[in-house]
């Protein structure tokens, strides 16, 4: 079996996470609009639980679909990061679903803290989220192959695809003389 590409540096993985959040803002706005049209929702707090379930489903389809198809979301393509199984193959459906559910550890602890503390100001919640992302991301320094905990638990890993691009650009090697 060929050696897998290295794990991308944490800085690049966090940059991809930020870019993903920007893209997901658009995805959730469009899907929220569709939900409102389909259900006749006229106020954001009306049918909030249904909207949250809908958005969760949309995000699951987005992530699992991209991970299963080519191992990369749009942000991962930009930052040249790919999700693979531990053996380097395409993630199985169960692995992708498990990774999606486990990856909520990025946002649920700060949201729960904000709820417990009854934070209404976005600044406190944003600071809590940023601190948690740095702590959770930083923990990968001590995990095997510097992967995130949700990757270890789901049997997946993130790999650097920059070498793939340079090999493709170089084309086939032709021996002369």
TrEMBL record:
<keyword id="KW-0472">Membrane</keyword>
<feature type="transmembrane region" description="Helical">
    <location>
        <begin position="50"/>
        <end position="67"/>
    </location>
</feature>
<feature type="transmembrane region" description="Helical">
    <location>
        <begin position="119"/>
        <end position="139"/>
    </location>
</feature>
<dbReference type="InterPro" id="IPR051791">
    <property type="entry name" value="Pra-immunoreactive"/>
</dbReference>
<dbReference type="Pfam" id="PF06271">
    <property type="entry name" value="RDD"/>
</dbReference>
<dbReference type="GO" id="GO:0005886">
    <property type="term" value="C:plasma membrane"/>
</dbReference>
<keyword id="KW-1133">Transmembrane helix</keyword>
<feature type="domain" description="RDD">
    <location>
        <begin position="8"/>
        <end position="154"/>
    </location>
</feature>
<protein>
    <submittedName>
        <fullName>RDD family protein</fullName>
    </submittedName>
</protein>
<dbReference type="InterPro" id="IPR010432">
    <property type="entry name" value="RDD"/>
</dbReference>
<keyword id="KW-1003">Cell membrane</keyword>
<keyword id="KW-0812">Transmembrane</keyword>
<feature type="transmembrane region" description="Helical">
    <location>
        <begin position="17"/>
        <end position="38"/>
    </location>
</feature>
